[in-house]
Amino acid sequence: MALLEARKLYARYGESDVLHGIDLEVAQGSIVALLGANGSGKTTTLRALTGGVRTSGNVLFDDREIAGLPPEAVARLGIAHVPEGRGTLGSFTVRENLSMGAYTIKDGKRSKARYEKLVGYFPWLVDRREQPAGLLSGGEQQMLAIARALMMEPRVILLDEPSLGLAPIIVKRIFEILRTINREDGVTIVIAEQDAAAALALADTAYVLEVGRVAISGPSADLAGNEQLRKSYLGY
Amino acid sequence: MNELAQQIVSGLATGSIYASMALALVLIYRSMGVINFAQGEMAMFSTYLAWQFAQQGMPLWIAFPLTIAIAFAGAVALERVVVRPVERAAPLTVVILCLGLLITFNGLAGWIWGYTVRTFPSPFPTTPLHIGSAAFSSQDLGIIAVSLLSLGAISLFFGKTKLGLAMRAAALYPESSRVLGVRVGWMLALGWGMAAAVGALSGLMVAPVVLLEPNMMQGILVYAFAAAVLGGIDSPVGAVVGGLALGVGLNLIGAYVPVIGTDLQLTTAFGIIIVILLFRPAGLFGRRTMRRV
Ligand SMILES: Nc1ncnc2c1ncn2[C@@H]1O[C@H](COP(=O)(O)OP(=O)(O)OP(=O)(O)O)[C@@H](O)[C@H]1O
Ligand SMILES: [Mg+2]
Question: How far is B192 from chain A (nearest CA, A)?
């Protein structure tokens, strides 16, 4: 069953449509990759799913219509969005960033337990707790953004190009953590990526966008395994 | 020595009034990027409410907290109803709205209560407090104590509570906060409420000194604005330090540099502020944009 679904989703900035009727299905517990060239509409799709841009069409979460809800309401339903640029609260400490992640969780004990669990994934967080998050390295900020999103106990987490600007080794580590989160905690993941190879290796399903439309979609193994498809849609 | 101590204390008293008003300005500036020029008139209007309650025979210890609560709730409502439509408008549009509010509250107060200058009851004893051989005005000490307590409470609120953290996040990083579930619009409204509450408090403290009339806060707003800019317009700590420094500075200039006299005292203070700003454009505690090097 689809946990998150878009039907004929259009999105616009100002006057012009940027998404032209996207259909997307994210199965409960799966990892879905959104691929495509620069400007193909990956970021806009994630924004359209979380109310960050004007849309028409349907967005269903748990079979409930959520299109038109503002981002803060979508977040409260359990959809975490790690936006382009990571959304780091730069002048806040690492601890404050994490605590803002748990903003919607009223039960302090649960947040504490959550924090303990995350420290297992990102042990370095402990020593950097009192540092301004803006001073972390790019990779650390990306990990912090993921940790912060997990603090809100999301059912699905949307990540916008987590690999951007990071060394391959760091990307590898982050993707491993994402896989663990998906397998062990059952968090559904939607990941927009330029790094198609890495994303296909991680994801169950992939959608390739071209100028605001789904050009092709299917099991990521099929895409990764078919050289012709790969060459024509992903350019590698 | 005693003379100096007395001058400093009395400077701190006026300074803490400026500090409270400056903090009110900063609270709104941080989230909206504009100075709420109506802040002084809102404080004045609240002070009139307290006066009205007192006239009705309500004891001050009820009238004052009630006034502050009304100021808070009223400003939250004002933000939600009047300011919200222009929240995303150009800063100048918001400025015009604030000026409109200034004129409205001023006119409203004049219309309801008239322009007669009225005395205002002081919550503090009139007998001076002797420490050693120095005598301090109880009123001054009371103003300082109340202001510092409330500023301390606000600083704890922003530093230690989740809601305070969210208000800061909403002001500085609205988009990032929204995806974390923060209702940014409501945080803005809360900011207006807190600013109005702090403003009302300073109105209540200063009214016994400057007397109650519809224009009583206008001069103070100018000082508060100067204090806020001096401290760094986006820094609450800066607003408080700026306010206290301005109060003490003005008082000391008045007392020890007689050449300048009361007429040019203000000009001198502003001259000094401008020189400081030339060297520190962001103010004493202003935020320099954080950058990795
Ligand atoms: N805020 C905006 N205002 C106007 N147009 C925008 C805005 N953001 C994106 N666009 C346009 O929408 C289209 C899709 O952009 P989007 O950011 O969704 O692409 P993307 O796939 O995320 O690209 P990238 O890989 O570079 O991040 C582009 O043509 C872009 O110019
Ligand atoms: Mg993008």
Answer: 20
In a mutational test of the B interface, the residue from A69, A100, A115 whose CB has the highest number of chain B CBs within 10 Å is A100
Residue B22 counted as domain residue: yes
Name the H helices within A122-160: 125-128, 138-151
B64 occurs within a structural domain: yes
- Is the minimum CB–CB distance between B174 and chain A shorter than 8 Å? no
User: Which residue carries 């929204």 as its tokens?
Assistant: B178
Q: Is the CB of A93 under 6 A from ligand 1?
A: no
Residue the block writes with tokens 């300082």 = B144
- The complex's ipTM works out to 0.93
Q: Is residue B246 part of a domain?
A: no
* Structural domain of B84: 2-217
Q: Which residues contact B16 (CB under 8 A, 6 or more apart)?
A: B143, B144, B147, B148, B151, B205, B243, B244, B247
Nearest alpha carbon, ligand 1 atom 17: A43
How many domains in chain B?
1
CA angle B49, B51, B106 (to 5 degrees): 55
pLDDT digits (tens, 9 = 90+) for B254-281: 888 888 777 787 788 788 888 888 988 8
B87 falls within a domain: yes
Which residues of chain A make contact with B287, given a CB cutoff of 8 A?
91
Please list, in sequence order, all residues whose beta carbon lies within 8 angstroms of the beta carbon of residue B250, skipping any fewer than 6 positions away: B11, B14, B265, B266, B269
**pLDDT, tens only, A110-157:** 999 999 999 999 999 999 999 999 999 999 999 999 999 999 999 999
Integer-rounded Cα radius of gyration of chain B: 19
**Which domains does chain A carry?**
2-234 (3.40.50.300)
SS3 B87: coil
Phi and psi torsions of B246, nearest 5°? -65, -45
Q: Is the dihedral of CA A36, A41, A44, A48 positive or negative?
A: negative
- Name the pTM for this structure: 0.89
CB contact under 8 A, B169 and A50: no
Nearest to A83 among B166, B176, B182 (CB): B176
